[in-house]
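pinning this so it doesn't scroll away 📌
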Amino acid sequence: MNKAIITVVGQDTVGIIARVCTYLSQHNVNVLDISQTIIDGYFNMMMIVDYANADKDFGAMVGNLEDLGDDIGVRIRCQREEIFTKMHRI
């Protein structure tokens, strides 16, 4: 299993989850866990995904997700789980 953490932050609008999940599904990335909330009109989502069977390499997926975020007006970041964990260790 190759896990990654995807975060999505921005002004809330219709279809954010649908667009992100559609991209992931189209490229054979499995969503393992998802949490989202809206705080005062701002959308926040964190996903744990498995990209082991993805049809794109990790770097291409990261770039595509950033571009998708630009298209829908949010900021999308994707990091390998081990990097995310090391960065957020207390």
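📌 and the second one:
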Amino acid sequence: MNRPGIIGPLLLITAGFILLAANLGFVSLSIRSILWNFWPVILILIGLDIIVRNTESRMHYILGVLFGLIIITGVIFLVFAGAVPGSKDGGTDAIKLEDKYPGGRLLVGSNMNGTDLEGRDFRGAVIIGVNMDNAYLHNADLGSSLIIGADMKQANLTGANLKDAILIGTNLDGANMCGADLEGVKFLGVETTGSTTCSDCSGGPC
């Protein structure tokens, strides 16, 4: 007995939830990163779809649908929890760069390599797996932000506000933090080789 498939509706529901959240500003994500990291879920759903479409048991069909819903709920939870790292090629920008105030936002897997982010307000933002190599963050406000697994090699953080920020597993190799406010900042497993952290750079590099 052939029963209605479930893969199409489940994928549409998932995409709808994620895109709606992104449009409302609750979460900023790279769709490419999501597809790169969660494509095996599609294979699981296809296999589940084949099983439930050909089962004779109504109970097995209902259990299959429930199992599919659990999988989709888990994916949505992981996305909103920030468990989506950047794709292997860096992904795409997860924020609109014309938005000067992305503070309080969840930024996951974005590619901001060399991006001009001067004076941007990232206060309270959660930044996970973002590529900020050579990014220009002069006078940017990263106060009270949570930065996890970001790549900020050679980033220009001169005059930036990092007060009370928490950086975990972030690469600051060669970053220029001259004149940055580092009061209360917490570094956990952060690479700072070659970085500049002096408080006054008016006389040039320290």
